[in-house]
Amino acid sequence: MFASVFNTRNGPLDPEEDERLRLNMFWTDLTSHTCMTYATREYTARLVNVPSYYNRRVEACMATPVKIHGVEYMPKWCEDHGQYNVIGHWEVDQHEPDCASYWIWYKDFGCTSFGSGQRRIEHYLENIPCGGDWKEFCATTPVSFRGMHFTGAQICFKNNGATWGHWVFDDESCR
């Protein structure tokens, strides 16, 4: 299936004209927003130099990279709010320090039951960014303990306003 780009004044644009127009488009007003998950922040920018007659604004947005912290990223999604207002969205995982929650002390609850072969540990999650989703940060904040590494908690819960992660794992000493 062939898709055409239309110039409402003169009909379809040829591929070379489409490429030329896209090469002249660029991002402005790059803005950082809230932390989305562990070490990941949302950014937005506005695509400029888009001709008023160009009807593939979202496709152009999705194909135009932006540099954030010296690295080029393609948009995760784009919004077309009409002429001169195409917004690109990025979720950038560059270990953004303001987005880095971390686990502090943990409590070993021992074996889940006699002969179960499983142990239960709970950790307290600290430094959840203001406005951050505690469940998302709990599920994506990595932790290592007892020689094991986890990309996030198996179960997340709140207790007295604090966020806790819960892990149950195999332990031979619980057999």
Descriptors:
single chain, 175 residues, elongated, four-stranded antiparallel sheet, 3 helices
Count of individual beta strands:
14
**What overall geometry do the principal axes of the alpha carbons give?**
elongated
Largest sheet: 4 strands, antiparallel
| Element string (H = helix, E = strand) | EEHEEHEEEEEEHEEEE
Helical residue percent? 10-25%
State the end-to-end CA separation.
62 Å
* Count of discrete alpha- or pi-helical segments spanning 4 or more residues: 3
Please state how the strands of the largest beta sheet are arranged side by side. Answer: 3-4-8-7
Low-confidence stretches: 1-10
Average pLDDT confidence is: 89
* Structure classification: mainly beta
Description of the molecule:
The longest helix has 9 residues. This protein has two domains: 89 residues, no CATH class; 74 residues, no CATH class. Strand 7 and strand 8 form a beta hairpin. The N terminus is likely disordered. Strands 3-4-8-7 form a four-stranded antiparallel β-sheet. It has a four-stranded antiparallel β-sheet with strand order 9-10-14-13, covered by helices on one side. It has three helices and 14 strands. The protein is mainly beta and 175 residues long.
